[in-house]
Write a structure and sequence with these properties.
By secondary structure, the chain is of the alpha/beta class. It has two domains: about 220 residues, Alpha-Beta Complex (Spore Coat Polysaccharide Biosynthesis Protein SpsA, Chain A); about 70 residues, no CATH class. About 40% of the residues lie in helices and about 20% in strands. The chain is built from twelve helices and 14 strands.
Length: about 350
């Protein structure tokens, strides 16, 4: 089911890209349902926020050709959600651009399906973890976005209430060699990773940042239009990963603020779509890392980064083959060998 024409403008559009995570998507939509109210005679529109001045909301789900029945379940379970059939697995970036093209809100909230907007359920979990209680996530974040910023993001927490780092500084040319690599694990206190993850800033402090983890990004449409590519706000050379840091870099370059608002809380189950395809995850993560370097750093950094990452996968392949010969966890070794071979065959080159 595809809705080709968005309704008349609303205050906020939530765009969710989903691939084979129906249970998590349903949890995400239920969390939105709890803090919003249907508008009589307004089709897909709902309202949220203070009763004296409520805002209007639409929710758009772009389904990336899921095989778990998501597209069949969604209309019957959540009739107020607009479903767009991507036709194939478009990836995170292209599917978000598609959802954006169908949206009408003055603000657009790009939200992962493996998230839940906090509505008070995690107060007990937060207290058990010794953390301050969360607030009404949707209304709080929307109010922060209305302060004139280009993008605002919430505090992310794991399902057990523990905080999940979601604020970042822009990577430097050396960062790619230490982020999710052997070098980074060998030298965990290296200055480039510490800078990237803002290890010197408390996660409970509200402040402007370079970029936000892409699980929950509430953006001003005016800002997105100011920096949009021909396809939409996201650069489609990134199939998935690195698209949010690229977007934030363009927003900051255009003079827009990117704000972290920890008083708004979102639960993030993290990586439930990408973990379904191990080899693809490795390829997309590292290909996007190299693509970002090619876009924002001068030679020879992009070439050096690609060569280093491929060298690391060759060494991992040799290690897995040796363990297989020793008879250690044969099924695991075979699956990893197959995944690493696919990574090496890709050469970490962007798709045409």
């Amino acid at each position: 089911m595809t809705h080709l024409h968005p309704p008349a403008g609303c205050d906020l559009s939530i765009v969710i890209v989903s691939w084979n995570v129906w249970a998590l998507l349903a949890g995400c939509l239920r969390s939105i349902e709890r803090v919003t109210t249907p508008l009589a005679g307004a089709g897909h529109l709902r309202s949220f926020g203070p009763s004296q001045s409520p805002a209007t909301l639409e929710v758009i789900v772009v389904d990336n050709a899921s095989s778990d029945g998501s597209a069949e379940h969604l209309p019957a379970t959540f009739p107020w959600v607009r479903l767009i059939d991507g036709g194939s697995n478009l990836g995170f970036t292209r599917a978000n651009n598609l959802g954006y093209a169908h949206s009408s809100g003055r603000f657009v909230y790009f939200l992962n399906p493996d998230t839940e907007l906090d509505h008070g359920q995690t107060h007990r979990l937060a207290a058990a973890a010794g953390l301050p209680p969360p607030h009404d996530s949707l209304s709080t974040l929307y109010a922060a976005a209305a302060e004139g910023v280009g993008m605002v993001g919430p505090q992310l927490r794991y399902a057990n209430g523990e905080q999940q780092g979601s604020v970042r500084r822009f990577p430097r040319p050396q960062t790619g060699f230490f982020e999710s690599t052997w070098l980074g694990r060998l030298w965990r206190s290296n200055p480039w990773s510490r800078s990237l993850h803002m290890a010197d800033w408390p996660v409970t402090f509200r402040h402007d940042v370079d970029w936000l983890v892409g699980a929950a990004m509430l953006c001003r449409r005016e800002a997105l239009e100011a920096v949009r590519t021909p396809a939409g706000p996201f650069d489609e050379r990134f199939f998935m990963y690195s698209e949010e840091v690229d977007l934030c870099r363009r927003l900051k370059a255009a003079g827009w603020r990117v704000l972290y608002a920890p008083e708004a809380v979102v639960i993030h189950y993290e990586g439930k779509s990408s973990e379904q395809a191990s080899a693809a995850r490795h390829i997309h993560f590292n290909t996007s890392k190299v693509a970002y370097a090619e876009k924002w750093f001068s030679p020879p950094w992009p070439q050096l980064l690609r060569r280093y990452l491929l060298l690391e996968y060759r060494l991992q392949l040799l290690s897995e083959r040796a363990k297989l010969l020793l008879g250690h966890k044969r099924d695991l070794r075979r699956s990893r060998i197959a995944a690493y071979q696919q990574v090496l065959a890709s050469r970490l080159a962007p798709p045409p």
